[in-house]
Amino acid sequence: MKLYYIYFLFIFILFSCKKENNTTQSPKEYNYNLLSSGKIKSFPLNSDTKYNPFYLYVFEDENKRNILSFLNYNSNQILFYDFDTNKHILKVDFEREGPNGINAISGYYIQDFNNIYLSSYSYTGLIKVDTAKHIIQKIPYGTTDSGYKIIPSYTASSHPYVPPIIMNDKIYITQPAVAHIHPIKETPLSVIIDSNKNNLLL
């Protein structure tokens, strides 16, 4: 009787392993076709606005509207448009000097109207602001224990289309491999900053 149970258990394990191998060896395939909508999006610009495709983000506001934002380069302005209606909503002129001065904006990332992360040529870190032009927090990039200095992930000179990822007060910033700045073998794929403690984690 005991031999019968051992034989049954062996057969059960054999079929279970075989089934698991079948599922892992047959990856899912996805097919996508891109179709033209036939629509052209057009956003009106003022005469003092220069369009720069390096800085262009779409986010959702508290009313579930899709908002298009972009930086008017060399003017420290960020413009906001309703993406669906193409209407201009807001223009924010950030100060260059004073307690809320940003100097020259080199890039930005937007979560929402109250959480805008700017990078500046005069500060080695992120500057968190809102649309009232108040500096909420300065988050220094810092240096790792091994001496690695963070390279900004969304400036025109590095990776303009790789924004930071912000999750649970942790900021994940990708790092480009640039040999003349830091040895490629010692360059991490990304670093993590704890925005609550202004502490470099990795």
Protein architecture, described:
This protein has a single domain, classed as Lipocalin. The protein is 11% helix and 33% strand. It contains one helix and twelve strands; from the N terminus they run αββββββββββββ. The protein has one helix at 2-24, and strands at 56-60, 66-72, 77-82, 88-93, 105-112, 115-120, 123-129, 135-140, 165-167, 170-174, 190-194, 199-200. It has a four-stranded antiparallel sheet, with no helix packed on it. A four-stranded antiparallel sheet has the order 5-6-7-8, with no helix packed on it. A hairpin with a 4-residue loop joins β2 and β3 (77-82).
Largest sheet: spatial strand order: 1-2-3-4
Order of helices and strands: HEEEEEEEEEEEE
CATH top level assignment? Mainly Beta
Taken from the alpha-carbon principal axes, the silhouette is globular
Strands, total number: 12
Which regions have little confidence, pLDDT < 50, spanning 5+ residues? 1-12, 18-23, 156-160
Instruction: Write down the domain tally.
Output: 1
Give the overall pLDDT as a whole number.
77
- How many helices? The count is 1
Percent of residues in helical segments? 10-25%
The N- to C-terminal Cα distance equals: 58 Å
CATH topology value = Lipocalin
Query: Structural class, from secondary structure content?
Result: mainly beta
Going by CATH, the architecture would be: Beta Barrel
Strand content: 25-35%
